[in-house]
Design a protein that fits this description.
By secondary structure, this protein is α/β, with parallel strands linked by helices. 30% of the residues lie in helices and 24% in strands. Helix 2 links the parallel strand 2 and strand 3. The chain is globular. The N and C termini lie far apart (42 Å). The relative contact order is 0.25.
């Protein structure tokens, strides 16, 4: 009998990851921060994967409030 869940899937939230070198004061960083702020925390888990330097500006702080950042 099916439990209604997919096999191997035990999360309630959908995970979304964003990759960018621009998690900083940059036009792309500002757009990504705004996009992340619009996701429903009830339905989504947000991750940011960056391959750029660890900037400590306001845009990076906005992104860090909305997502788990991985370098």
């Amino acid at each position: 009998k099916s439990s209604g869940h997919r096999v191997g899937y035990d999360r309630e939230k959908i995970r979304i990851g964003y990759y960018s070198a621009d998690f900083r004061n940059h036009p792309v960083g500002s757009l990504i921060a705004g996009l992340m702020e619009e996701h429903s925390r009830q339905h989504f888990e947000i991750f940011g994967f960056t391959f750029g330097p660890n900037y400590h500006d306001e845009t990076r702080k906005r992104i860090a409030r909305e997502a788990t950042i991985r370098c």
